[in-house]
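Example (one chain per record):
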Amino acid sequence: MWVAKLVIPTKDSMLVGSKAKSHKVTVMGYPTSHFWKKNKFYILGSIYLVGEEKSKQNFLKSLKEDKRTIKIEMMNKSFGFWLMEQHPSNKMFYDPLIIYVKPIIITNEGDYIFELASWDRNKLSNIAKKVETSVYDGKLIYLDQRKIENITIISALPNLTEKQKRTLELAIEQGYYGYPRKAEIKKLAKEMKVSYSTYQFHLRTAEKKLMPYLANISFT
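Predicted structure:
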């Protein structure tokens, strides 16, 4: 199967990306359906938010205030569903013969990351060509044939306690898992206002629960 990875930097006109960047929230999710109504294009999908609690609340409030947001319902503090109006040009990402190998990721810097698969190389190639135009200013990271062992499903993730979740989210936000590593546990513990050993315990417990499921999610 052909697989493509694309990165698109956000612009002020991009509803979710601009607000994710503004509020420093990372957004992950899958589109579940899409449709046209009165010449307008809509998508329905799931969302999972990563960030400080206040930042997530401000992000959601900002989205709800935008007329392009039709509906948002959060099942808990991080996971929910939304229905949003999209620019018609974005319909290329929702072709019925395109498979989302991983969730769409919108980083807290506003970058959109897509990993798409199809039996038809031309479908992915055409998307890449459009993404690399001045309309999107995006970049094709790769387009090649790969064996897909599985796909990442957010709902398959085990539940974490609030402390475990926040510990892991903070590590992701601050670049603990980056290379080179941008933050150490001592700094993260101080920011979370807990001891080194407490932070390390929560982080290791969260990693033990999540790593078997998150091995295929790429944030960069």
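Caption: Strands lie at 2-8, 26-29, 31-37, 40-50, 69-74, 79-86, 99-100, 104-106, 112-118, 139-145.
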